[in-house]
Structures are given as structure tokens and as C-alpha cells.
Write a structure and sequence with these properties.
Layout (H helix, E strand, L loop, with lengths): L2 E5 L12 H8 L14 E6 L3 E10 L3 E6 L17 E3 L12 E5 L4 E2 L22 H16 L20 E4 L2 E5 L11 H6 L14 H14 L16 H15 L6
Antiparallel strand pairs: 1-9, 2-3, 2-7, 3-4, 4-6, 5-6, 8-9
Length: 263
């Protein structure tokens, strides 16, 4: 998944769009080495292509933690980065890296994991609401929200005032940063005139409504007037992340907000 991000500073609007790896690295909390992993603790295990795979602690010692994988993966000791120092254990008849196989992992490479549905903070519009704020849980939150968005169809019947809120899953806040994942499909209904009106004059917080570039564009516009200071929005990201489209979305909102008539 390619994605981007937007940030607004309290004095000048600063929007940044970055690749997932850059963003989650900056937002990663302190290392897990100081945290306690006990038997049966749900954890995230480093994975060469998925980023992290689900696992459960089965045994602990001073230097390593033995983890049982809960999902199919292609973990192989030769594939892992040298600093992960992951040793496979042939304790089951299943192929190494498959569901149910056990591996040894250095303690500081693991991340705490919340069981699916076990907490109201397992999926959040703002990553700072997650129980564990680190690279593994931010990535999982982005994946879960992206899945929610991909399952939404604008024609589906819904009793909610704004059923398209599901589609906002392509956007996720991390405090004042807005992460955006390229949907690779038409989501033009997210940028309609009614949506622009909805995000107009949201108040002091850009988090009142679901994550959206309009929220930060509106904040930047209001700060331009209230603080009498130039505002800057920087959009960056890897190739295909959606930088150009994000710039168009923001400019469309700002152009609409600065109109002097409604004709």
C-alpha cells in the first residue's frame, strides 16, 4: 500500500505526506525491550514482507522469547534482516513460518498486540488512541481501516446520516498528521460539495469529523485569518502514493473556501 500524510502546526499549517515506513518510524514509541512479555501474551513478530505477523508468546528467557505464529507467513531465517537475529525452531512438523510453527525472537524486536475485538482501541481514527503506539500497531491500524474502506460501496443502504464515513478509512490521523493510503479506485464521493460544506468551520479541533484532507485544509484556512500568518502545506511521499491527487483535493477545498460568491 502506498500512502501519504498531512500535518497542521499550531502556528503555521504544515502538511506532510510520507510513505508508511517513514511515518511509522517517526511515530514509533520507545523500544519494547523495557516491556514485559509473559507466557500467552499476544505479540507482533517482525516479518520481511508483511512488516509484522501475529503470534503468541509460549516461553520466555533473558535474551529471547519463543513465539508461536498464528497466521500463515513466509518467515525464513535467511530472509530476515541481520539485526533481527531470528532463529527458527523445528519444534513442529509444519513448515517453518506456517501457522503453528515456533520461532525464537529477540525481546526488543517484539511488539505488544491487542487481540482482535478485545479493546475499543484496537482500531482507531487517530493512532494516538491505540493502546500501544508503535510501528506494528500503527501498520495494523492502517490495514484494518483500509480494509473497512475497501468494503464500502456508495450504493449500499445505511441508516447513518453519513454512510460514506466507512470510506474515510483510507485516511487516518496520528495526532496532527493525516496518513492517506491510495485506494486505487474511484472515491470521488468523498470530495463532493456536500463534503466540503460538512468540513467547513469545524471548530478548534480538526478531529471533530472523520479523518480527511478537508479537515486540515479548513484548519489552515482559518489559521490564515485568525493568526494573520502565512500557512504552508507540504505534501510528499513515495512514487504512486497519491501526492498529486492529494494536492488537488486540498487546493479544491481552499479555492472553494476563498470564494466571494456562491454563483
Amino acid at each position: 500500500m502506498n500512502n501519504s500524510a498531512i500535518t497542521v502546526n499550531s502556528k503555521s499549517s504544515y502538511c506532510t505526506t510520507a510513505s508508511t515506513n517513514d511515518t511509522v518510524t517517526a511515530a514509533t514509541s520507545s523500544s519494547s525491550s523495557d516491556e514485559l512479555f509473559t507466557k500467552d501474551s499476544p505479540v507482533w513478530v517482525p516479518h520481511p514482507s508483511l512488516g509484522y505477523a501475529r503470534g503468541v508468546v509460549t516461553e520466555t528467557n533473558q535474551d529471547f522469547v519463543e513465539v508461536t505464529l498464528l497466521e500463515e507467513s513466509d518467515i525464513n531465517s535467511s530472509d530476515c534482516d541481520g539485526d533481527i537475529n531470528m532463529n527458527l525452531m523445528s519444534l513442529t512438523s509444519s513448515a517453518a513460518g506456517s501457522s503453528g510453527s515456533k520461532i525464537k525472537v529477540e525481546t526488543d524486536k517484539l511488539r505488544h498486540r491487542i487481540e482482535d475485538g478485545a479493546s475499543q482501541f484496537s482500531v482507531a481514527e487517530d493512532c494516538t488512541s491505540l493502546l500501544h503506539l508503535d510501528d506494528a500497531n500503527i501498520l495494523d491500524n492502517l490495514k484494518m481501516r483500509y480494509k473497512m474502506a475497501s468494503e464500502f460501496r456508495p450504493t449500499e443502504k445505511n441508516t447513518l446520516p453519513h454512510p460514506e464515513n466507512k470510506a474515510h478509512g483510507i485516511y487516518t490521523f496520528t495526532s496532527s498528521v493525516l496518513l492517506a493510503v491510495n485506494p486505487y479506485r474511484d472515491v470521488s464521493y468523498l470530495y463532493s460539495k456536500s463534503q466540503k460544506i460538512r468540513y467547513r468551520n469545524m471548530g478548534p479541533s480538526s478531529h471533530t469529523l472523520p479523518p480527511h484532507p478537508f479537515a486540515l485544509a479548513d484548519l489552515a484556512y482559518r489559521q490564515l485569518y485568525s493568526e494573520k500568518m502565512d500557512q504552508a502545506m507540504v505534501i510528499s511521499g513515495e512514487s504512486g502514493a497519491g501526492k498529486t491527487e492529494t494536492a488537488k483535493i486540498v487546493m479544491s477545498c481552499l479555492a472553494d473556501r476563498s470564494r466571494t460568491d456562491e454563483s
